[in-house]
Design brief:
235 residues; 14 strands; elongated; 30% strand; 6-stranded antiparallel β-barrel; alpha+beta; single chain; 6-stranded mixed sheet
Length: 235
């Protein structure tokens, strides 16, 4: 019985070792977990730049234009769409450093009507693979980033975007440089980012602890049953 238990324990240890080696990324591979986490951080960065903004109309005119007051002029931009308390919509067309903003509205509105920006219609193009980065890494990050953007309440991934994200990934997987810009519908740059992420390994990671190669235990033909083990350890 003792010999059977020893054999089973050795078999389980060998299987665990093989599984650990199979799970290790191969040389020059990207790590899916690292890519997913980097994409999540990227989506949070974008959402922080384009939060939902509240405001109210000021002096709407019969020509369907109106000045406005916004809670966050720093993050507002021309082309942003607001919902006016179920009455209509407001498209922001002007935002000045002095604090003035104005735009055009639809619906029957009144001075002081409150409004809130709609979730931003946004898209992410396939990122280009720059020097030191292969296409698989660029595609993997682009795909994960699109999914991560969908989880942000202030954003709405769309085929008809108000804002388009585009850029590239370059450098080795251990130190990727992700350069992105946010463009409005007229191609104007609203924001740009340069992010540094680790998306994988440039060489195999260190071997797991106690991964020294061992040969399977074999029955010891000289074992007399009196002492020691009936299994021979061949190294």
């Amino acid at each position: 019985m003792r010999m059977v238990i020893v054999f089973l324990l050795c078999s389980f240890a060998a299987a665990a070792k093989d599984a650990g080696q199979a799970a290790r990324p191969s040389e020059n591979s990207f790590d899916p977990v690292m890519v997913k986490e980097a994409a999540r951080r990227f989506a949070m960065t974008v959402a922080a730049r384009f939060p939902r903004i509240e405001g109210e109309l000021r002096d709407p005119s019969p020509a369907r234009t109106s000045a406005c007051h916004l809670s966050d002029l720093q993050h507002a931009f021309a082309g942003q769409i607001f919902e006016i308390e179920g009455k209509g919509t407001f498209e922001l067309r002007n935002v000045t450093a002095g604090g003035f903003c104005g735009g055009a509205y639809t619906g029957a509105v009144a001075d002081g009507d409150r409004m809130r920006s709609l979730p931003l219609a946004i898209s992410l193009t396939q990122l280009r693979a720059g020097p030191g980065t292969d296409l698989r890494v660029a595609k993997a990050f682009s795909d994960e980033a699109r999914e991560a953007l969908k989880s942000q309440a202030a954003l709405a991934v769309s085929n008809e975007p108000v804002v388009t994200l585009t850029g590239s990934i370059s450098g080795p997987r251990s130190n990727q440089v992700i350069a992105l810009v946010a463009l409005d519908q007229d191609g104007r740059v609203l924001e740009w980012w340069q992010l540094f992420e680790r998306l994988g390994y440039d060489a195999p990671p260190p071997a797991p602890f106690a991964a020294r190669a061992r040969l399977p235990l074999q029955p010891n033909p000289s074992y007399d049953g009196a002492s020691g083990s009936g299994w021979a350890d061949r190294r």
